[in-house]
TrEMBL record:
Residue intervals of the XS domain: 115-222
Keyword set includes Heme: no
Domain of life the protein comes from: Eukaryota
Keywords on record: Coiled coil, RNA-mediated gene silencing
A biological process from GO: gene silencing by siRNA-directed DNA methylation
Chain residue ranges for the region called Disordered: 314-336
UniProt keyword annotation of Disulfide bond present: no
Organism: Dioscorea zingiberensis
Protein's recorded name: XH/XS domain-containing protein
Residue ranges of every copy of the Zinc finger-XS domain listed in the record: 43-83
Length: 336
């Protein structure tokens, strides 16, 4: 069944029931899968959406809500089938509160607690070969073990030591993200397939010389051996939902922080734009003032030049008149 085209195509009302029935049969056959871990569920019809993991009740509410919404016919049919499947086929594995008659006052069943892992994601490695050398027990180093486990992308491998030396055990640290969880589970799955997991280690009386390992969980965390002490010192217990919710909170905080930073930058940008406009206006006023001053100066110079020219012309005319008057005066004197 192609789920990627659900939103782009639709069904008539008469076809929804038939499509719901087919989807329900597919869910019963295990394709697509709904349950991921003992207490973790996913909606197979909302791949790529914001919320990837649900508790049982949350997924049931999601399926009922979408099934009764105004979404497309295929989307509603698939989610109705999912709600039907959750209620009729897998609800028996989820603790629920029974309806008690007045005469039936038996204690309510206690919900099964979610499995807790050591976080950051951590695995335990045991049965590392050791030998007595130079007065102490020695064994393979963490760097060599990390190289041997390179296919699982460990961040670090820490060998554990006591007063006598190497204990033959090590802690394998993986990335803190979901990729790290995937690597840790792949490490555990690989050893379980080889019958070198935790159950094999605890059950076998005669153990092979191979390495045994598993992902650290609550029982390892509370143990009193060096492994438990190290886990309590370096990590904490969390469920898958705890980690998912914490990442969601961190993402919300990051989005809020980025939004705040963007708002601050936009405010600063507006303030700079206002200051720039003020500076432009001030500069324009100065330019206008300089222009007027320069214009007045030029006009004053022109006026002075004109006055000087006028004075020069007047002086020249006066000199000519004086020169013309001198011969006349001399002639008059001679006549007399």
């Amino acid at each position: 069944m192609d789920y990627s085209s659900e939103e782009s195509s639709d069904l008539s009302d008469s076809d929804i029931d038939e499509y719901e029935a087919r989807s329900y049969m597919n869910l019963k056959s295990g394709n697509p899968k709904v349950k991921r871990l003992s207490d973790i569920y996913r909606c197979p019809f909302c791949v790529g959406k914001k919320k990837l993991v649900y508790g049982y009740k949350d997924l049931l509410q999601h399926a009922i809500g979408v099934g009764s919404s105004n979404r497309s016919g295929k989307v509603k049919a698939n989610h109705r089938a999912l709600a039907n499947f959750m209620e009729n086929d897998i609800s028996v594995t989820v603790p629920s509160i029974p309806q008690l008659a007045d005469e039936d006052k038996r204690p309510l069943p206690t919900p099964k607690p979610a499995k807790k892992f050591v976080w950051p994601w951590t695995a335990i490695l045991v049965n590392i070969p050791t030998e007595w050398k130079n007065g102490q027990v020695v064994g393979e180093s963490g760097s060599k073990l990390k190289e041997r486990l390179s296919r699982f992308n460990p961040v670090r491998v820490i060998t554990l030591w006591n007063d006598e030396g190497h204990t033959g055990t090590a802690i394998v640290e993986f990335g803190r993200d979901w990729a790290g969880f995937k690597d840790a589970m792949a490490f555990e799955d690989q050893l379980e397939v080889q019958h070198h997991g935790k159950k094999d280690w605890c059950a076998a009386e005669a153990k092979s010389s191979n390495l045994y390992g598993w992902v650290a969980r609550a029982d390892d965390y509370v143990s009193t051996d060096p492994i438990g002490k190290h886990l309590r010192k370096k990590g904490e217990l969390k469920t898958i939902i705890d980690v998912a919710e914490e990442e969601s909170r961190k993402m919300e905080k990051l989005v809020a922080y980025m939004k705040d930073q963007l708002d601050t930058r936009n405010r600063q940008l507006r303030e700079l734009e206002l200051k720039s406009q003020e500076v432009d206006m001030c500069c324009q006023k100065m330019v206008d003032k300089l222009y007027l001053t320069h214009q007045a100066y030029n006009e004053e110079i022109q006026l002075k030049q004109w006055l000087a020219k006028e004075n020069s012309t007047q002086s020249s005319d006066d000199n000519v008149n004086k020169m013309a008057a001198v011969p006349v005066s001399a002639a008059q004197n001679q006549v007399e």
